[in-house]
Structures are given as structure tokens and as C-alpha cells.
Predict the structure of ABC transporter substrate-binding protein.
Amino acid sequence: MLKKKVASQVVLIMMMLMLAACGGNTGNADNATEEPSAGQSASPAAEETASPSPEAGAEPSFEPVTATDVTGVSVTVDKPVQKVACVVSLCVDVLAELGMKPAAIAESGVRTIASAPEFYGSEGESFPSIGGSFFEPSLEDLVTAAPDLVIGLSGVHDSLREGLNGVAPLFLGNPKSYEEAIAFLETIGELTGRTEEAAAAKKRFLDKLEAAREQAPKDKKALIIYGSDVNFSVITDSGLGGTVMKEISDYPWKVENPEDDPYGEGSVPYSLEKLLVENPDVIFVESYSYSPGTKLISEQLAESPLWSKLKAVENGQVHEVRSPIWGDGRGTRSLSIMMDEALAILYPDLY
């Protein structure tokens, strides 16, 4: 009897312990519905309430940009322009001002500005090359470059537009004054989404021009001539470089007969006899060579007795300049370099 009684008590105690344990578990389950402590994750419902905004991780939308080039053709870019192929130095000039690098360039050798220290330096020598000639760039190389935009020179590269159809839009320019060079810079800034960079470059150029305009005494008669032989031409005050030179020097050269400048380039053929009439104090020479061993224009002209009679020649003020920059660049950076170099020669005591 005693053994049975003890067994019954043991069973009773075990049942009481089991009930106590069940009660403790029930209490923990209830507590789990309370607000989580620091360091714990929120409940699924709370996470759904704090879902991210729709913009998170989404790519920014792009609004197509349309601009009209110098030929009157409306050009639209329907995606961000990141790769620009240059078949003219004007393009290289503008991209440098905008803080971009060409995807490929067509001009090479001594006529390129890309490798000039004021542009891309040695890096400019490694840009992908577009073969062919200046007048007929290689379409195959342009396609290989896979550009978002191609920039060329009106009157030279117009025929590329058909070949580039479906590859990339072609935008043509040909600034004939520094104002037009600024306008071209601003337009490319819009097409590439770099309007702030274009505005900054415009300000740099105009500030420099204004300072030179105020400081330069303009008591030196300057002249820019260019060519590849003794049949040279003069840049007049309506030519691109002339529009800058007339602001910083005495620059009397004009297009007197429109038939001498049928394309409105602001340049006219000239002779040494006519130069002696105005007799400039300083002559800047842009020599172009199309075959190895060709002499500079100043060297060819020196073979004429009339050349030695010019005031600039007598005073040692004939200066061969970097024709790729002075003549081919056409943009605000090239014009700014031209201004710096001309001022230093015209007014060495001031610059």
C-alpha cells in the first residue's frame, strides 16, 4: 500500500510540473506579439509598409534633344550622347571645351589638334583613327566607332549624312566668326547634355577677349595669311580669325569685291604688290603642306624681291604659326590660343 501511495504522489507531482511548463510557453507566445526590441527586424507587415519609393534604382528618363545645324537640317538625338566621332578639328575643339574625349578622329599627322598640349597632349595620339581622307572619311571606320553623334564640316562632309543613316546623326558646322563659334559650342553642349560646361567655356573666352580689347593699344597693323605656296590668301576682318584680330589690333583687311569671296569665308587671294600698300607691322603665316619637303610659305615668298620690302620682314616680324590651331580649330579654345599667341607677339611688353 505504501509503495502505491508514493507512486501516485510522484505521478501527481510530474503532472503539476508539466502544467507549469505549458503555462510558461503560452506566456512567451503572447509576448512575441509585442513591439520588437532594438536590433530585431520588423514584421512582414511593417516591412511592406516601409517599401522603397518607385524611383529607387530606376534609370533617369531622357528627353530627346533637337537642334538645327548650319545646313538647315534638323538633327535629333534620342539617347544620351556619350561617344562623338570627329571628322573635323572643330569637333575636337568643342569636345575639349566640354570636357569630353572623341570616340574617334579623322584628321591625323601634322593637321590634328588633338595631340596639342592645350588639348589632349600625348593621349590625343591614341584616339581611334578614322581612315580615308579629310574629304572622304571612311564610313566603315565610323560604323566601327559606334558613335552617338558625328560632327563634320559643312560644304565638305554633307554627303556623309546618307551613309550614316541608321548609324548616328550627323551635325555639320562651319563658324565664320567668333560669335558663330560660341553658338556652335552652345548647341553641341545642348546635344551632349553639357550646357554648364559650354556656358563656362563661353565665359572664359569672352572674358579673355574683353580683357584684351581693353588692354591692347591696337597700334600694330597685323595680318594673317595662309596657303601652301606663293599663291597665298589673306584672312580679312570678316574671316573667323579676323573677327578676333580686329578686336586686338589694327586690322584693315576687308573683302572689297564679293566675287573674290564667293563662299563668304572672309578670305581673299592676295599679292605682294597689294600687301605693300597697307604694309603690315606683323604678319602671321599659316603654312599648309600637302607633300613632303614643301617649304613654308614665308620661305617661298622670301625668294621674291618684293617680300624683303615689307615692314614686317625688315623688322623680323614674320611669324609662322600652328596652322592646325590657327586655321583648322575653328572653336573657342583654338581662338583663345590664337589670341594668346598673337598678343604676346604684338605687345611683348604687356604680354
